[in-house]
Write a structure and sequence with these properties.
7 helices; about 140 residues; 2 domains
């Protein structure tokens, strides 16, 4: 719990003035997130314990592993000193997370529409990652 509090405090500090007020007033993305997608049994962001992971279904384990990689890489990317570089690095990790989620869908899902969406996400996000890597090569020493 202490680590979660420290992470939130660091995020507010890095976000700058007004960020706490924005968080308190409610964020559009949170309001737009469908209630169907919320789960009372969802783990806390810090609960990656072996005991918790053992209780998950295979598709959930794969998804959690992809999310943990994405979270780690996004945090590293967002710590870049240059705002543009931080954004691009964070977005690369975010897109890689979307690809990992899509790969999990293709491995475990059976709905034709969801599987096709996963293929489209992989194609689009892969292309955008290539574009972002090219931008980094051109704009960062």
């Amino acid at each position: 719990m202490r680590n979660l509090i420290l992470i939130v405090m660091l995020g507010v500090t890095l976000a700058g003035p007004g960020s706490l007020a924005r968080a308190e007033s409610g964020d559009d993305a949170a309001r737009l997130y469908p209630e169907t997608c919320r789960s009372a049994g969802a783990p806390s962001p810090s609960d990656h314990s072996a005991a918790h992971m053992a209780d998950l279904q295979d598709h959930q384990k794969d998804a959690m592993q992809g999310m943990m990689r994405m979270d780690r890489d996004m945090m590293q990317g967002m710590m870049q000193a240059d705002a543009d570089v931080a954004f691009v690095c964070g977005m690369i990790a975010h897109h890689q997370g979307a690809i990992a989620m899509s790969e999990t869908e293709l491995a475990y899902g059976d709905d034709a529409w969801a599987r096709e969406l996963a293929r489209k996400v992989i194609d689009a996000q892969t292309q955008e990652i290539l574009e972002m890597k090219e931008w980094l090569e051109k704009n960062v020493n």
